[in-house]
């Protein structure tokens, strides 16, 4: 029988596995995909996540595989700044910086550090039942028994649906394309994440490595059709956007709905705990979904240092994490709504210029400060 089973080898499950490994705890991790093949293009690991990777001895590796980002700038369609957040001071204070990285590179580092042989790929959980301990049944016919289970199986979590029977997935009414491309970005954008706000649409881009950049584009769902051409959607944006889109191979582009999970009352039950998107998926407007999954793993690890009883750990874990996570889910939804306005967007962009940078920095620090 397994002592600890983790369902899902996404960023949350892999981070937790790294934390458990550091504490020399025995665990098994099960992933439905036939190989560790991340969905999506790039991702930003903010200072909160990077502090945790530092404690795991992975910070420098991740920095080398990605690109350090010292600021986030929101602009209008013409790439004129309307809001800036410079994080150099926070970087000094927390001895870490934001890193933009290809998801494949990040997951490779996390998976290799625990040892690829620890990850049972091709194990899609079909059924989980609690008797005196957990009985797990996988699509490939394998069955496993386990004392403790972590559900790190994402927003559609089978673990959550079958054992906690809660959670409503909310559609934010926006379509999001993500892409990555080898592209020679002008130097002024090398250390900044850029997001351009237009009328009912947004375009963001960030350098991820020496050669490549990651971009995303959002439109309100009511304007979406299967044959929508992004070049014509963004023809009124700065020419750089069209250059990036034209250079991107179609096979490097994915399309998703923007969704989140309505806050659920409890992330745990006896000997079982959800982490990451399975517990509290957020819209991506603050770039914090995966960072929060990593914080979950970190807090579980900190509690394991002083507690022996898992049910106490899970209870305390939720008590520590709840406030920050709820704040992020709520605020991210709000930012998503405002940034996609179709009316009043010019006034919005005008007024944004008056928000002092100190306000953005304060908001930033609230998010990147670890709770323990
Ligand atoms: C457009 C967009 C941009 C984003 N940008 C950022 C960003 O810049 N920074 C950031 O921090 N976050 C970002 N996020 C959020 C981030 O992608 C998620 O929050 C993060 O991936 C959640 O990690 P997770 O491990 O909890 O879940 P997931 O990544 O969903 O991983 C779950 C894993 O479980 C596996 N699985 C699912 N069901 C089963 C099953 N039945 N049996 C076995 N395995 C199963 C899946 O295959 C998967 O590998 C973004 C999200 C989107 C949509």
Automatic annotation (TrEMBL):
Keywords: Monooxygenase, Oxidoreductase. Pfam families: FAD_binding_3. Residues 4-166, 266-305 form the FAD-binding domain. InterPro entries: FAD-bd, FAD-dep_Monooxygenase_BioMet, FAD/NAD-bd_sf. GO terms for molecular function: FAD binding; monooxygenase activity. The keyword Oxidoreductase applies. The keyword Transmembrane does not apply. PANTHER family: MONOOXYGENASE (PTHR13789), PUTATIVE (AFU_ORTHOLOGUE AFUA_6G14510)-RELATED (PTHR13789:SF309). This is Monooxygenase. It comes from Chryseobacterium soli.
